[in-house]
Amino acid sequence: MSFGFLHGPAPEAQVVLDLREHFRDPHVDPAVRELTAADRAIRRAVLGTPGVRLLLAATVRQVAAFAAGPSGGPIAVAAGCAGGRHRSAVAANAIARRLRRRGHTVTVTHRDIRKPVVQR
């Protein structure tokens, strides 16, 4: 799941990523502010940020660790940024893609991607 902290608290999840402080925010560029993770410019900006790909790989490893545990239940991953349109949505999609390649069944939900851009 992706979400924006400015739209509400983080959802319940086994793994919660807070992308607000350490990763470049496309929102600061007025030319792409209204775009979402569905747009190539946003995907390139987020995935090109130093450290993001390492975090995605580490998250996939975390999910694998949970999946190896004895419970066998679903594993929720929630990626959050400020507004939920850029960093978190790109991260959620990328994590899902990587997990699917490893044989996991994945459902992606973008809680806040269709909400108006947060003015800050």
Low-confidence region ranges: none
Share in β-strands: 5-15%
The first-to-last residue Cα distance is 23 Å
| Rg | 14 Å
Query: What letter string, H or E per element, gives the SSE order?
Result: EEHHEH
The count of DSSP E runs of length 2 or more, i.e. the number of strands, is: 3
Largest sheet: 3 strands, parallel
Number of helices: 3
**Helix/sheet category:** alpha/beta
Helix content: 25-40%
- Record the strand order, biggest sheet: 1-3-2
Overall average pLDDT: 95
Summed up, the domain count is: 1
* Shape verdict: globular
What's the gist of this structure?
The protein is an alpha/beta fold and 120 residues long. The protein has three helices and three strands.
Overview of the structural elements:
The chain is of the alpha/beta class and 120 residues long. It has one domain (2-101). It has three helices and three strands. It has helices at residues 40-47, 52-68, 87-101, and strands at residues 2-4, 15-18, 77-81. It has a three-stranded parallel sheet, covered by helices on one side. Helix 2 packs across helix 3 (87-101). The radius of gyration is 14 Å and the shape is globular.
